[in-house]
Amino acid sequence: EHAILPNVFSYGAALSALEKSGEWHRAMLLLQEMPGRGVEPNAVTYNAAISAAGRAGQWQRSLQLLREMEALRLQPDVVTFSAVISAADRGEKWALALAALQLLCAQGFQPDAIAYSAALSATEKGAQWQQALALLCQMHTNRVELQVIACNSAAGALALGRQWERSLAVLREMPGSLLEADIITYTSVIRGVDLGRQWTLALDLLQEAWQRKLELDAVAYVAAVSAVGRAEHWELAAALLQDMRDKRLRPSAMSYNAAISACA
């Protein structure tokens, strides 16, 4: 009987499986093995390998694979660049993520929601609120459909940049895009109003999230406790900590420190 020899399709399927299972190192070995087996890698196999490396935060390896594609004269596509942007995001390299997005546009491609969301996530990790705002404007100009994850990253970047009014605006404009804010959105905005010393607004947002039946988590409470702590309202800080206990949320050292600062 003749042995069934692997081809580019079987390699592509195997690489995709390794990507999904997070086995990036095996994916690299499999890609390197292909030429020796007489199988020429294509854009699909490279995309899977780049994505596998990206999921593991191996942004340097993702860049190396992109350069290999160019050396082999394989045309990178939206999937390729989105994978590189995601790798840069996971590696907390916001400048690289934006450079990859710019290169994607320079190649004549239109970034999709996935590429923009990954780039926005990178700007949040880098606290680059101006860049996040610019990306939101690009998405609007290019008529790219907003997603909740993109709004959350934008709100987070703006909050970290002490742009609480803009962060709040992202939350308020979500219904216009038929998007429902989640607890991550509210937590990001509460962090912003905390840094902006808007403690009453922080409590209003926490109450609003509760009224919308969102599952309040410890992170949201910590941001609210921090806000009232900055304003030295120890009674409110203590009440929030008790509310956390009532909801069986474990207060963190950070929340206790914020409450203690309210008593100082």
Radius of gyration: 23 Å
Number of helices: 15
Order of helices and strands: HHHHHHHHHHHHHHH
Distance between the termini: 82 Å
SS class: mainly alpha
Number of strands: 0
Indicate the overall shape: elongated
Overall mean confidence score, pLDDT: 89
Largest sheet: none
User: What fraction strand?
Assistant: under 5%
Helicity, in percent? Answer: over 70%
Spans of at least 5 consecutive residues whose pLDDT stays below 50 are none
Short description:
The protein has 264 residues and is mainly α.
List keywords for this structure.
TPR-like_helical_dom_sf, repeat, elongated, mainly alpha, Pentacotripeptide-repeat region of PRORP domain-containing protein, 0% strand, 264 residues
Could you please describe the fold and organization of this structure?
The protein has helices at 8-20, 24-33, 43-55, 59-71, 78-90, 94-106, 113-125, 129-141, 148-160, 164-173, 183-195, 199-211, 218-230, 234-246, 253-263. The chain is mainly alpha-helical. Among the domains are: 1-76; 182-263. α12 packs antiparallel against α13 (218-230). The radius of gyration is 23 Å and the shape is elongated. The protein starts with 7 loop residues before the first helix and ends with a helix.
What's the helix and strand layout?
Layout: H1 8-20, H2 24-33, H3 43-55, H4 59-71, H5 78-90, H6 94-106, H7 113-125, H8 129-141, H9 148-160, H10 164-173, H11 183-195, H12 199-211, H13 218-230, H14 234-246, H15 253-263
